[in-house]
């Protein structure tokens, strides 16, 4: 569990209602600096909505969120980003007709408290943020390509680049490997480990359990807007409620083998 002194993010009893539907229904989560926390759960469990509420994309209905010494409950996404929180999206969101570099420039600009209006002008420090992010994810050689031409892997890398260009203290990744093949999944895994190596705190949502469980130091499983499990990665497949509502027996068996082989290695 997290040490009180190191807590970077603290969500308490967060509720998000859409009409009569409680998409997030009393979620609490503490994340310590340097942790990788994984969130899983069936489709429609409320995982993305929980990210949306934390990152200020949509206002919460009830509860409170503290981040890095600030009460961020009710703040907008730009202000929250400027305080050091960045995210990627499940869909490959990008400005299709802009180049890779221009897309990251937009993110860099969004993350800066001091913006130069009018127009999207970046000073030398902001330029450096964009170039660093490009290099970090390995997209520097494609910086001048139009995003519309990029394959799925590069689009995923682009979103991560945009997020880290804002120099966040915490990074939220929403299904960073959805739609990728095994080699590509491994590449993103390496990238997340590289970020962790640099001290980044990460919260990630993923259905690819191998990815989720290998990277996370702690895992939460959501169902109907609620947390139904919180524990170590190797405990997930042991939990009867998680197996019944999410994993199924086939995945449970595969995951048990995965951890047994890991222990032998
Ligand atoms: N803007 C919205 N308006 C109304 N209902 C919404 C809205 N956004 C999400 N929901 C509903 O909230 C519930 C949770 O959706 P959410 O996308 O957060 O789930 P999820 O766990 O991320 O699912 P997935 O794994 O499929 O991405 C769903 O029933 C969804 O239809």
From TrEMBL:
Domain of life: Bacteria
Domain ABC transporter: 9-249
Molecular-function GO term, any one: ATP binding
Cellular component, GO annotation: plasma membrane
SUPFAM superfamilies: P-loop containing nucleoside triphosphate hydrolases
Record-linked SMART domains: AAA
Keywords annotated in UniProt: ATP-binding, Nucleotide-binding, Transport
Gene Ontology BP annotations: D-alanine transmembrane transport; L-alanine transport; L-isoleucine import across plasma membrane; L-valine import across plasma membrane
Keyword Nucleotide-binding (UniProt): yes
Record has Transcription regulation as a keyword: no
Sequence intervals crossing the membrane: none
Protein name as annotated: ABC-type branched-subunit amino acid transport system ATPase component
